[in-house]
């Protein structure tokens, strides 16, 4: 990179102004081969292009009364730098006769082309002749008009309507004291004469012409032969008044129309006067009077000397043309009545003041009027622009007048009074119904003048807008500098004259710089390709590499199945790039072709005055903002304010014609790239950038449509993420130059800092927002990037990397909205086009959790789980986001459908966390359903510790079949018996628990509650509690276990496992043994009573609300069990406990006992008071039963009587019946 040239090539001759000079012809042979050209100058120039070929015709009129006809031979189409070659076709010397006209009119005075009729009018030394185009052969039998002062007045409204028509073209000529309208077709016919002597210039729009004399201007209605005096050319001319009455100048005119233009205020009728432009005054009296002090003449007839009044019709006229008139001239029957006759003698002048009076101090000196050249142009179909001033070296003023003679808008100001004036362009705020025409061409005035010596002197062209509402901005094109050397030409004396004219034809000019900037060229980055991107991180996990390869193959397979043959990307043809370059070169040549109708000349050279293309103007301003071309230049020193000013000047503009849209797009892209690269370089170089500049840079990036890969390639840390693709990156030619220059500076600046590839976080945030904005364009057809696939892959990779860098400073934990981490999640969750590169980046940054989310976006469940397993097992997660990872694994396994993954990772999780792992197989919402036997088999092989958890789920939760209950019981027994067989302490612990419980005084909890509340933190203890619960179940599959098998295993430990033996005795129907163990070995009297109520089915199962019914136990069975329990209570060793428990049993459940039986088994030594409760309740029960029996008997008797009475009544209703035998 260091060897790349740092020079920037600037376009030669390019300017920031609205116009530039382009040579049309150099070193013209103004004199014949043997003549001396030093005294010969160019008087006028015309140009006409033929529609049937590409050749142009240049006509040059000289002061030697010759017309040089040049044919412009166009260059080869492939040679964009060449220009048409002028070939001298003829040297014409028009005939002329001796004239009484002033000597200043010598030589070729005017060349007027009439393309519509293929004719040319040539005025030479006061003689008008006619010729045929293009070869200038004589026309109309060499018709000549002598004593002609000027020719013109072609209707500008139809000037561009080229083509032969029967009605021809009407021109105006001045012959002596008359303006003659002549129609030119295949012959010349006089239309009419208008008496208007001493006129020097006329510009016509339809029936209205603006005419100038040597002193003033007037508006002329050529159809009605009426005129409106306007104002003087020189405001110091004391003999000319401002405004006047509308006068009829026809030979039969009636009284003058009362139409006076006020000298103080413009007319309120007609066109509306816009006072906004330039803040200029629109009062004739104000801005004309302000140019110089005008002394009013005491003679009221003095204004008639201005030449504005109509001369006497009886005055002699020039000889008529030798052609038949179209109609006889109108003649009046009587002379027009005049208030003041021009022949009336003037009053005597006032007496001269004495010398003493003249020399009195304080007497003002009256400025002398200077004869100024009148200038009339018509910028719009309804307006004329006229010039006025005080002197050649004084400022001039341009006044806009409409067809009513009113001032139509503000004035123009010229640095000096113009020598020549031309308008170009229709204007952008006229010509439409709304008053604005933004699509139109900008309107400019071009004025030739000699520049003030203080400003450098020389002659040139002053340019300014005439249609702008803002403050006027004047530009200057120097034609004849004050030195004696003309740029591009030989040394010579400074020409005294600079000419300027708007010609009839449009010349085509080529500016190659336009095409060079706007055509597309390939930008070669030199460090990336479309197949792979350089990887910064080589520490990727092997499992990650395998997943990337698998995803790549899957994507290729998917794309091959998705797209049809016509949609598949075909291999590029050989030579495609050369063909595209050739195509772009041709497009660039078309972009660089411009047209112009304005020419300038000086000495023996002629130039086109060409509209400077918008792209050149704006690009020149951008180039000025760039640092100087030195070996130490650096884009960090970019004049950012200048670039921002250029962007602001085009903000909101939307041009829709020509190269306008491309030009604006190019300028926005170039300006945005300049600002951005300057920002990057400044950040690396440690140069502070204001917040305003940062915001402006971001806005510039977001507003332009430059390929994001170009922007990213200027950043060293993101350059490797750029993918060019097989077609490469194509950008504007001017943008390529900026990149090649700025990227070099970026690398140079980067090598000078010690912060590596770190950028200011604010700049990274700008890049982030820019890339996010580009991602939103994905899927839209108007992206403006040819290779969208590679562009968006680059955007995704760069955005991911930027977010990873910014997220380094985020706190550990899951990202909350809004945050950088949340944006990172959103990026990977929605999927990225650069999947393989994203995997490498996330691996390199150690962001495995984010990597897992990336896999989830592609539904790669195996890679998701594999990444989570890596995090859980290794603890590697730089973001600290995978909180409670095992739970996340369980939730994810429930959601997926892949059976193999569920089995693999469910067993892995069960091995790490049995309770959590079992939930994967046990969850009813799981999308993978496995048979319990299959799950048990998997767990036994891969997670033995989780088998118990799963069996408990099956038995207690799902109430599966007895096989699982037996397996679970066997598991519990294995655990408990293993401990008892190997631990004396465990056996002692159980024995002490019995003793402790028996020692408790009533009321006391049940033994089940006692051992639960006093459980120890041992696995075997917990398993024993679950074993008791499982053995005590009375319904479902859990109760259908194999009692004999269990009892056989428990027999060696029947003293230590008393509750278990009680339950098993009850299951075998050995209720007396069970009640004996409950009463004497445990001392759990309440459980014993509960055992009787439940019919001996369980002791640890919670009793239901209606135990007898739900347990399906009869009262007789309960009475039998209570009888056995009474027997055991009477055998309690402790007398107080015996009496208390027996008395309580009889009192609470006396209804289940027979009184006689109880009295028979109760010891005789017991006091009757101990049994008083039982006896009283028994007697009450007997009395109640007797009373209930008597009531029932009485009710039955009543019911019998009722039925008998109903039977008798029914028999009476039916009556007797006879039944015969047989």
- Low-pLDDT windows of residues: 1-7, 9-13, 251-283, 290-359, 430-438, 484-495, 527-540, 557-567, 1103-1110
Estimate the mean pLDDT confidence. Answer: 78
Largest sheet: 5 strands, antiparallel
Q: Provide the helix percentage.
A: 25-40%
Query: Which descriptor suits the 3D outline?
Result: elongated
- In whole angstroms, how far apart are the ends? 139 Å
Number of helices: 36
| Secondary-structure content class | alpha+beta
Radius of gyration: 58 Å
User: Based on the structure, what is the oligomeric state of the protein chains?
Assistant: single chain
**How many strands in all?**
32
Strand content: 15-25%
Main location: cytoplasm
Region (Disordered): 246-366
GO cellular component, one term: cytoplasm
Protein name: CNH domain-containing protein
């Amino acid at each position: 990179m260091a060897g790349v040239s740092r020079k920037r090539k600037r376009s030669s001759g390019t300017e920031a102004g609205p116009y530039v000079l382009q040579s049309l012809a150099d070193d013209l042979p103004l004199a014949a081969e043997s003549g001396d050209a030093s005294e010969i100058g160019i008087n006028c120039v015309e140009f006409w292009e033929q529609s049937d070929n590409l050749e142009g015709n240049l006509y040059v009129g000289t002061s030697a009364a010759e017309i040089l006809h040049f044919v412009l031979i166009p260059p080869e189409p492939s040679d964009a730098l060449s220009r048409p070659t002028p070939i001298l076709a003829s040297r014409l010397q028009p005939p002329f006769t001796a004239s009484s006209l002033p000597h200043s009119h010598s030589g070729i005075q005017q060349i007027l082309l009439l393309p519509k009729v293929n004719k040319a009018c040539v005025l030479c030394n006061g003689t008008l002749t006619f010729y045929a185009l293009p070869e200038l052969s004589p026309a109309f039998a060499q018709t000549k008009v002598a004593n002609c002062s000027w020719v013109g007045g072609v209707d500008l409204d139809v000037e561009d309507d080229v083509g032969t028509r029967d009605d021809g073209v009407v021109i105006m000529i001045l012959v002596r004291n008359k303006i003659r309208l002549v129609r030119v077709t295949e012959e010349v016919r006089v239309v009419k004469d208008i008496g208007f002597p001493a006129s020097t210039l006329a510009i016509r729009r339809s029936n209205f012409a603006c005419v100038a004399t040597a002193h003033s201007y007037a508006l002329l209605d050529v159809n009605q032969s009426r005129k409106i005096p306007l104002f003087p050319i020189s405001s110091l001319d004391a003999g000319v008044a401002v405004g006047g009455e509308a006068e009829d100048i026809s030979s039969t005119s009636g009284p003058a129309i009362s139409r006076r233009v006020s000298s103080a205020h413009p007319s309120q009728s007609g066109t509306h006067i816009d006072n906004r432009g330039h803040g200029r005054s629109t009062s004739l009296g104000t801005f004309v009077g302000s140019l110089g002090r005008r002394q009013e003449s005491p003679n009221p007839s003095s204004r008639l000397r201005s030449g504005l009044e109509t001369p006497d019709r009886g005055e002699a006229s020039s000889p008529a043309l030798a052609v038949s008139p179209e109609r006889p001239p109108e003649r009046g029957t009587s002379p027009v009545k005049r208030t003041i006759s021009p022949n009336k003698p003037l009053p005597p002048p006032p007496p001269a003041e004495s010398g003493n009076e003249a020399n009195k101090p304080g007497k003002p000196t009256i400025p002398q009027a200077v004869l100024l050249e009148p200038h009339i142009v018509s910028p719009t179909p309804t307006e004329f622009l006229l010039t006025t001033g005080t002197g050649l070296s004084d400022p001039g003023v341009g006044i806009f007048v409409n067809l009513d003679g009113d001032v139509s808008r503000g004035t123009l100001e010229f640095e000096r009074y113009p020598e020549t004036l031309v308008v170009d362009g229709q204007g952008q705020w006229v010509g439409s119904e709304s008053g604005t025409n933004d699509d139109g061409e900008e309107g400019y005035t071009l004025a030739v003048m000699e520049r003030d010596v203080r400003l450098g002197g020389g002659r040139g062209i002053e340019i300014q807008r005439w249609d702008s509402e803002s403050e006027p901005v004047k530009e200057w094109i120097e034609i004849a500098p004050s030195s004696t050397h003309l740029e591009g030409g030989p040394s010579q004396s400074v020409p005294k004259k600079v000419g300027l004219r708007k010609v009839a034809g449009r010349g085509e000019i080529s500016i190659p710089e336009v095409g060079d900037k706007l055509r597309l060229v390939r930008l070669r980055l030199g460090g990336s390709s479309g197949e792979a991107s350089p990887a910064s991180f080589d520490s990727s996990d092997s499992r990650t590499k395998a997943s990337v390869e698998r995803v790549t193959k899957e994507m290729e397979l998917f794309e091959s199945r998705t797209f049809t043959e016509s949609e598949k990307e075909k291999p590029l043809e050989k030579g495609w790039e050369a063909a595209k370059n050739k195509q772009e070169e041709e497009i660039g040549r078309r972009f660089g072709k411009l047209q112009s109708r304005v020419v300038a000349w000086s000495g023996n050279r002629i130039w086109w005055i060409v509209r400077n293309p918008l792209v050149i103007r704006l690009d020149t301003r951008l180039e000025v903002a760039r640092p100087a071309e030195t070996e130490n230049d650096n884009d960090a020193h970019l004049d950012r304010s200048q670039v921002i000013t250029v962007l602001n000047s085009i903000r909101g503009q939307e041009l829709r014609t020509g190269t306008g849209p491309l030009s604006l797009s190019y300028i926005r892209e170039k300006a945005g790239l300049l600002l951005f690269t300057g920002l990057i370089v400044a950040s690396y170089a440690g140069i502070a950038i204001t917040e305003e500049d940062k915001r402006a840079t971001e806005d510039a990036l977001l507003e332009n449509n430059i390929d994001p890969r170009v922007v990213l390639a200027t950043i060293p840390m993101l350059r490797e993420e750029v993918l060019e693709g097989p077609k490469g990156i194509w950008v504007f030619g001017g943008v390529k130059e900026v990149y090649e220059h700025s990227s070099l500076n970026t690398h140079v600046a980067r090598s000078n800092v010690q912060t590596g590839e770190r950028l200011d976080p604010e700049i990274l945030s700008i890049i982030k927002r820019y890339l996010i904005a580009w991602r939103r364009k994905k899927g839209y057809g108007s992206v403006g990037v040819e290779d969208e696939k590679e562009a968006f892959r680059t955007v995704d990779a760069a955005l991911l990397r930027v977010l990873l860098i910014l997220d380094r400073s985020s706190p550990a934990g899951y990202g909350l909205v809004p945050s950088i981490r949340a944006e990172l999640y959103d990026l990977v969750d929605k999927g990225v086009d650069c999947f393989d590169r994203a995997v490498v980046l996330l691996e390199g940054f150690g962001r495995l959790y984010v990597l897992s989310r990336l896999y989830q976006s592609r539904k790669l469940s195996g890679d998701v789980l594999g990444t989570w397993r890596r995090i859980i097992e290794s603890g590697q997660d730089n973001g600290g986001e995978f909180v409670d990872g095992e739970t996340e694994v369980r939730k994810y396994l429930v959601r997926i459908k892949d059976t193999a993954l569920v089995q693999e990772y469910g067993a892995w999780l069960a091995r790490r966390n049995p309770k959590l792992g079992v939930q994967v197989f046990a969850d009813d919402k799981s999308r993978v359903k496995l048979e319990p036997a299959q799950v048990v088999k998997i767990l036994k092989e891969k997670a033995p510790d989780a088998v118990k958890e799963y069996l408990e789920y099956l038995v207690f939760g799902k109430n599966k079949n007895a096989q699982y209950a037996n397996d679970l019981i066997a598991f519990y027994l294995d655990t408990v018996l293993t401990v008892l067989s190997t631990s004396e302490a465990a056996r002692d612990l159980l024995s002490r628990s019995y003793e402790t419980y028996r020692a408790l005084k009533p009321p006391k909890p049940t033994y089940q509650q006692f051992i639960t509340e006093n459980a120890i933190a041992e696995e075997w203890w917990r398993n024993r509690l679950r074993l008791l619960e499982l053995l005590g179940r009375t319904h479902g599959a859990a109760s259908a276990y194999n009692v004999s098998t269990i009892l056989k295993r428990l027999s060696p430990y029947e003293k230590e496992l008393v509750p278990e033996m009680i339950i098993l005795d009850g299951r075998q129907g050995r209720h007396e043994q069970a009640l004996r163990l409950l009463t004497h070995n445990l001392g759990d009297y309440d459980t014993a009573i509960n055992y009787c109520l439940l019919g001996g089915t369980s002791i640890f199962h919670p009793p239901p609300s209606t135990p007898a019914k739900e347990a399906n136990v009869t009262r007789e069975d309960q009475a039998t069990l209570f009888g056995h329990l009474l027997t055991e209570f009477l055998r309690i060793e402790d007398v107080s406990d015996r009496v208390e428990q027996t008395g309580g049993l009889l009192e609470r459940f006396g209804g289940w006992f027979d009184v006689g039986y109880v009295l028979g088994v109760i010891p005789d030594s017991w006091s009757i008071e101990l049994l008083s409760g039982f006896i009283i309740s028994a007697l009450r029960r007997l009395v109640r039963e007797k009373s209930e029996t008597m009531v029932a008997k009485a009710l039955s008797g009543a019911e019998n009587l009722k039925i008998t009475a109903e039977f008798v009544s029914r028999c009476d209703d039916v009556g007797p019946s006879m039944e015969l035998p047989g």
